[in-house]
Amino acid sequence: MLSDIALYGAIETGLIYGLVAFGIYISFRVLDFPDLTVDGSFPLGAAVAAMLIIAGWNPWIATGAAVLAGMAAGAVTAILNVKLNILNLLASILTMIALYSINLRIMGRPNVALLGEDTVLTPWYDLPLDYHQVPVLLFVIVVLVSLVLLWRFMKSETGLAMRATGANARMARAQGIATGGMIILGVALSNGLVGLAGALFAQSQGAADVTMGVGVIVIGLASLIGGEAVITPNTVIKALVACVVGAIIYRLAIAFALNADFLGLQSQDLNLITAVLVTLAIVLPGARASLVARFTRNKA
Amino acid sequence: MISATDLKLTFGKGTPLENPALRGMSLTVNQGEFVTVIGSNGAGKSTFLNALAGEVMVDSGNIIVDNVDVTKLPTHKRANRVARVFQDPLAGTCEGLSIEENLALAIKRGQRRGLTTAVKKQYMERFRESLSTLKLGLENRLGDKMGLLSGGQRQAVSLLMASLTPSAILLLDEHTAALDPKTAAFVLELTTRIIEEQNLTALMVTHSMKQALEVGDRTVMLHQGEVVFDIEGEDRKGLEVKDLLGLFEKQRGLEVDDDSLLLG
Fold first, then answer.
1. How far is B159 from chain A (nearest CA, A)?
2. Which domains are present in chain A?
3. Contacts of B119 in chain A (CB under 8 A)
4. Do A171 and B94 touch (CB under 8 A)?
5. Contact, A199 vs A66, CB < 8 A?
6. What is the total count of domains within chain B?
């Protein structure tokens, strides 16, 4: 079984990826905009937060700056698509590649350690809690606040206009919605959340690394799809809860897989496991339906 | 009032597929007028409606809606003046959103959208009231997803949405064509009722000559991107489909060979 440290570690990382899953929910589900920028905006958030913290900024302000940097990256992708008519997927790949160079520039080297620096977590260690429970508590609060704000936004006039843009752009235009503007706003918001996740991840891991974004999109998608398999996302609030639940389940599944000695898996197999889990999450709901259909046919 | 002057639009200019869809279309629709538009396939009916709505930009000519030149404005900037119901019943509403959310989108058509809750309590009375006029029981299903409704029900809601806020003109693009005859008759009856009650200015494209003569108070026929005839008032009364065909042939010196014109 999992040790306490592995369990809390999995939940902590799961909560951070819950924020990534929120971002991916906005781009992939609300806007129907396949956005791979996240692989670049996640380390961007980490790099911006890490450098500002090292420069002596308040860690919360540094984290806020990371959110803004992520939003700017998302806005670039969306503008490439909306204003320059570049295919959405390609536009996001262009930004992602560009961000690799930008992240190296920001950090000046491939990785930056935050050892001994004050992070958003530092004051929380004074609480009478176990060392590995502290990040979980803080991130639960961050995720809950983000969830409520995002839910309220999606229910607002502007949020509804954004949902209409992704669902039926022609209808949205006919209702007077500037669909291009909604795409820019949405993709920026999405990458802002991913930048936040990157900033928190760097602070909890104690380092920012230029390669830490590799595969974030797949993990985020795994969380999103996994969550949707557990909680039917027929309302906005359920879809958002599904993101967090999916992300935590995903991290726990990974932790169990790596801990189960009889499987013989090692940490370098992580990406393979991820790919298998995503495939299962996509295929299983359909397989279950066809199984149910087979049984009901047999009965009849 | 809406007036289109000398609209010209060619698709695929400079390519072998060059297709002049509008060739100097002019039409003025007065306040409170209900105009039906007919024409064979490729006559430019849909292109004309798309040009009025802003979905396509004309090469030349101009479009004035309520004394404002909207020729260069994109769709969403005309939406406060132009309301629209599409041919495809699925196109006018969002199936993933609930009925009340769709109506809430429509009640803010062409206005600024802020960060306050979209589905406001003070709208509910109005939503229920207007839905109840459809007599489909939808007033008790406000929270249901639009996708649960049939094509006819969705088209009826689209029509309500288009009339929820005032507009200079209501564009109806063969909005009964994709429905079964009974539902089509219901939606058409609803259309004429709403237009009459609210004294709307409307332009209805239809494939059916019969329908074009039965409803509205003026009929315009398009052919090859131009208006070939325009009848109203006394001239229009008692006119039948065969008279319309005769008129068309006389005007153009053409034989009508398009069966679709005779249908309905």
1. 13
2. 4-299 (1.10.3470)
3. 155, 160
4. yes
5. yes
6. 1
Q: Taking CB atoms and an 8 Å limit, are B53 and A153 in contact across chains? A: no
Task: Per residue of chain B (264 residues), give pLDDT as tens.
Answer: 899 999 999 998 888 888 899 999 999 999 999 999 998 888 899 999 999 999 999 999 999 999 999 999 999 999 999 999 999 999 999 999 999 999 999 999 999 999 999 999 999 999 999 999 998 999 999 999 999 999 999 999 999 999 999 999 999 999 999 899 999 999 999 999 999 999 999 999 998 888 898 899 999 999 888 898 898 888 888 888 888 888 777 766 655 555 555 544
B62: domain CATH number is 3.40.50.300
Q: How far is B31 from chain A (nearest CA, A)?
A: 21
- pTM metric for this prediction: 0.90
CB contact under 8 A, A155 and B53: no
Q: Where are the alpha helices (DSSP H) in chain B?
A: 45-53, 75-78, 99-107, 121-132, 151-163, 181-197, 209-214, 233-236, 241-252, 259-262
Residues A167, B110: C-beta atoms closer than 8 Å: no
Contact by Cβ (8 Å): A35, A166: no
Residue A246, SS3?
helix
Domain that includes residue B31, residue range: 2-95+167-262
In one letter, which amino acid is A232?
Answer: T
